[in-house]
Design a protein that fits this description.
The structure is a single chain. The chain has no helices and eleven strands. By secondary structure, the protein is mostly beta strands. The chain has one domain.
């Protein structure tokens, strides 16, 4: 059942730089994203919360998914997140992705019929971040 708390990912490698990146394995794929935890962290399992710092733009960085299954993957310097998109009363987006909720700001109104459907969101790697939590 989806929840809005931290999710467990396996950090395979921390990559120093600006920004600090982490190569991670999730329950539905691997990618490299901005790491907002200890830059000296050792590889291992971490509870994390996903954030996306790029507005959702239908037909730009978001589109209908051709496959109805969660996925996280790299596509060049972009991160692709596939999940079910729900639209809140105030017009924000919430992507349900393999046991966690990712809140998304929406740049323009979404098309009718998108609420509750499978979508793919592709954002620049530096705009997708993981914040580790201790439970």
């Amino acid at each position: 059942m989806p929840h809005d708390g931290p999710v467990l990912v396996q950090v395979e490698r921390i990559i120093p730089g600006d920004p600090v990146l982490a190569r991670v394995a999730t329950p539905c794929g691997r990618t490299t994203v901005r790491w907002c935890g200890d830059p000296d962290a050792a590889p291992g399992a971490f509870h994390v919360e996903w954030t996306v710092d790029e507005d959702l733009l239908w037909g730009g960085n978001a589109r209908a998914a051709s496959v109805a299954a969660p996925e996280v993957r790299a596509d060049g310097d972009r991160v692709v997140l596939r999940g079910v998109l729900d639209v809140t009363e105030d017009g924000a987006g919430v992507l349900t992705l393999a046991g966690t909720l990712v809140l998304l700001d929406v740049a323009a109104p979404l098309p009718d019929g998108v609420d509750g459907t499978w979508v793919e969101v592709a954002v620049e790697r530096r705009n997708a971040a993981l914040f580790p939590y201790r439970l």
